[in-house]
């Protein structure tokens, strides 16, 4: 149970980081 919840939290963080990276890349591309 605990391990599963930790894994879910890690996956959630990874997804958020990926989204943030994509947004940053888009912003950088738009600035050029």
Features:
single chain, rod-shaped, 32 residues, 1 helix, proton-transporting ATPase activity, rotational mechanism
Task: Name the overall outline.
Answer: rod-shaped
What is the typical, i.e. mean, pLDDT? 96
Report how far the terminal alpha carbons are from each other.
47 Å
| Tally of structural domains | 1
- The whole-angstrom Rg is 14 Å
Continuous helix count: 1
Helix content: over 70%
Total strands: the figure is 0
**Model regions low in confidence, pLDDT < 50 over at least 5 residues:** none
Per DSSP, what share of the residues sits in E-state strands of 2 or more residues? Answer: under 5%
* Major sheet summary line: none
Structural class: mainly alpha
User: Element order, helices and strands?
Assistant: H
Organism: Candidatus Aphodomorpha intestinavium
Protein name: V-type ATP synthase subunit D
GO molecular function: proton-transporting ATPase activity, rotational mechanism
Structure write-up:
The chain has one helix at residues 2-31. By secondary structure, the protein is an all-alpha fold. It has one domain (1-32). GO terms for molecular function: proton-transporting ATPase activity, rotational mechanism.
């Amino acid at each position: 149970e605990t391990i599963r919840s930790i894994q879910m939290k890690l996956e959630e963080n990874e997804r958020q980081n990926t989204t943030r990276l994509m947004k940053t890349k888009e912003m950088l591309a738009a600035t050029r």
